Amino acid sequence: MFIIFFCSTGPISVTTVPKGQNVNASYYTVTALQSVVKNVKKKPARLASGKVHLHHQNTSNHTAVKTCQFLDESKLKLIAHPPYSPDLAPCDFWLFPKLSEKLAGINFRRPQDLARRVNSELKSI
């Protein structure tokens, strides 16, 4: 499984979730969001101007107090996701099918190989 953050210019962060790992609020903030903040800080003008907005679904790890505190401390603004609004999750409709199409029929021996290929495909999309 991958946790993917992207913007209009391409992927910001692609985190590979180890097999058997639960993605709870702690894992999400420490692993995935830390990576986003690190990569966004490479473009400090964007973060300082308040132009970084995060949109994610209403799953418990996204709405947990720990996650919300981390977002506040990191100056990332959260765009609300209305309940029962699958049309606001565009990855389900264009990104994931496009990735599946590009990776169809390829067997990867190691998770790292798959992660590299996913990252490469995301950059090309």
The number of helical elements comes to 6
Query: Measured on Cα atoms, how large is the radius of gyration?
Result: 15 Å
CATH superfamily: Ribonuclease H-like superfamily/Ribonuclease H
Quaternary organization: single chain
CATH class: Alpha Beta
Largest sheet: 2 strands, antiparallel
Write down how many β-strands occur, each being a DSSP E stretch of 2 or more residues.
4
Sheet/helix structural class? alpha+beta
How far apart the termini lie comes to: 19 Å
Order of helices and strands: EEHHEHHEHH
What is the annotated CATH architecture? 2-Layer Sandwich
Q: Into which percent range does the helicity of residues fall? A: 40-55%
Strand coverage percent: 15-25%
Query: Low-confidence stretches at least 5 residues in length (pLDDT < 50)?
Result: none
The CATH topology is what? Nucleotidyltransferase, domain 5
- Mean of residue pLDDT values: 80
Strand order of the largest sheet: 1-2
The coarse overall form would be globular
Overall tally of structural domains: 1
Description:
The protein is of the alpha+beta class. It has a single domain, classed as Ribonuclease H-like superfamily/Ribonuclease H (Nucleotidyltransferase, domain 5, 2-Layer Sandwich), CATH 3.30.420.10. The protein has a two-stranded antiparallel sheet. A hairpin with a 2-residue loop joins strand 1 and strand 2. Helix 1 packs parallel to helix 4. The longest helix has 16 residues. The mean pLDDT is 80.
